[in-house]
Amino acid sequence: MYRIGQGLDFHRLEINQERPLILGGALLDSEYALVGHSDADIVIHALADAILGAMGLGDIGQHFPDTDPSLKNMDSSIILKKTLDLSKEKGFQLVNIDCTLMGERPKIAPHRTKIQSSLSSLLNLPEDCVSIKATTTEKMGALGRTEGLGASCVVLMEKK
Ligand SMILES: [Zn+2]
């Protein structure tokens, strides 16, 4: 049996040399950083939501509430790992993921392969099953004004 899931996440963006930019678990060299309670890794947040969605198990807000002080500045790869553990318990296995980043800045192209290989290793999936794409909003709206960055992720899961 196959199940599809999708997830979306947005965080505010700031120019901050002190705070790292982390996307898909990869630490990226950038003047920009995402603002959030955890490490604000929108790719992992959208991905974990997609995995939970595929299994019909709610969203990361339920499983990892941002009011929980233990999650402050937490490495989101831990959220991903816990979500994957849960999927294993339920007998699900990831087949492939397809993610699109949305925003004007930072440009994703120079970071794409680093994000892809980070996720490939976190998910234990071959790189051709981990797709990372990016689009702008043609300078429209908040994302167009570089006030934030968004991520959309679709996953296919197989229940053994
Ligand atoms: Zn988030």
Automatic annotation (TrEMBL):
GO molecular function, one term: metal ion binding
InterPro entries recorded: MECDP_synthase, MECDP_synthase_CS, MECDP_synthase_sf
A Pfam entry, by short name: YgbB
Binding, 4-CDP-2-C-methyl-D-erythritol 2-phosphate: 9-11, 37-38, 59-61, 64-68, 135-138, 145
EC number(s) recorded for this UniProt protein: 4.6.1.12
CC cofactor note: Binds 1 divalent metal cation per subunit.
Binding, a divalent metal cation: D9, H11, H45
Catalytic activity from the UniProt record: 4-CDP-2-C-methyl-D-erythritol 2-phosphate = 2-C-methyl-D-erythritol 2,4-cyclic diphosphate + CMP
2-C-methyl-D-erythritol 2,4-cyclodiphosphate synthase domain span: 3-157
Keyword vocabulary terms for this entry: Isoprene biosynthesis, Lyase, Metal-binding
Keyword Cell inner membrane (UniProt): no
Pathway the protein takes part in: Isoprenoid biosynthesis; isopentenyl diphosphate biosynthesis via DXP pathway; isopentenyl diphosphate from 1-deoxy-D-xylulose 5-phosphate: step 4/6
Site feature location: Transition state stabilizer: H37, T136
PROSITE patterns in the record: ISPF
Cofactor: a divalent metal cation
GO biological process: isopentenyl diphosphate biosynthetic process, methylerythritol 4-phosphate pathway; terpenoid biosynthetic process
Task performed by this protein: Involved in the biosynthesis of isopentenyl diphosphate (IPP) and dimethylallyl diphosphate (DMAPP), two major building blocks of isoprenoid compounds. Catalyzes the conversion of 4-diphosphocytidyl-2-C-methyl-D-erythritol 2-phosphate (CDP-ME2P) to 2-C-methyl-D-erythritol 2,4-cyclodiphosphate (ME-CPP) with a corresponding release of cytidine 5-monophosphate (CMP).
Subunit structure: Homotrimer.
PANTHER family listed in its UniProt record: 2-C-METHYL-D-ERYTHRITOL 2,4-CYCLODIPHOSPHATE SYNTHASE, CHLOROPLASTIC (PTHR43181:SF1)
Recorded family membership: Belongs to the IspF family.
Protein name as it appears in the record: 2-C-methyl-D-erythritol 2,4-cyclodiphosphate synthase
